[in-house]
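request received
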Amino acid sequence: QVQLVQSGAEVKKPGASVKVSCKASGDTFTRHYIHWVRQAPGQGLEWMGLINPYDDTIDYAQRLEGRITVTRDRSTSTVYMELSGLRSEDTAVYYCARERAVAGKDFDDWGQGTLVTVSS
Amino acid sequence: QSALTQPASVSGSPGQSITISCTGTSSDVGTYNHVSWYQQHPGKAPKVIIYEGSKRPSGVSNRFSGSKSGNTASLTISGLQAADEADYYCCSYAGGSTPYVFGGGTEVTVL
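response:
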């Protein structure tokens, strides 16, 4: 069954922030690291960050440090990714992905993706 | 952390075998046994087809196989089928300041 459901498409102006949500079902929220990966139009995948469900520690890609924030809301089993200081090159489909349990270090389930368009 | 290097495209005829390479460094592919491969059809989310270098998730065809030698991982698709036309991405755990790195992707065409 569907484990990760993301929020809908967003259009933002340069300099603004965007917050994308990823609702997790089952034991996904409590037992799996959740990662964020993005894909610019016609381009490859880029790892952005992750959140550890056991202690809420986070890890971010160095090139996004200072602009990305990943958080969790336990009351709604939802993970959020906020990206600030948006630029045109941040236009992309943003995915949340579940890491395989027991430190698998691969992504065995993905959300459907959220298109974020940055345009003036 | 630089992206892993993959060929931009690979093609083959139905029934043939093809291999996609994924070259990293001693800081990622060469050190960790955590290389995964993803298949992505247009407009769809990626799907894992190989993890931990050579393991197949349940439900993935045994026509897909993975291996590693030194700093290079490889994905082999045997008995190529039309449904295998897709983009394929490798990913390696790398530790450090950016712990995961993807390859640039390979477009597979079935002739």
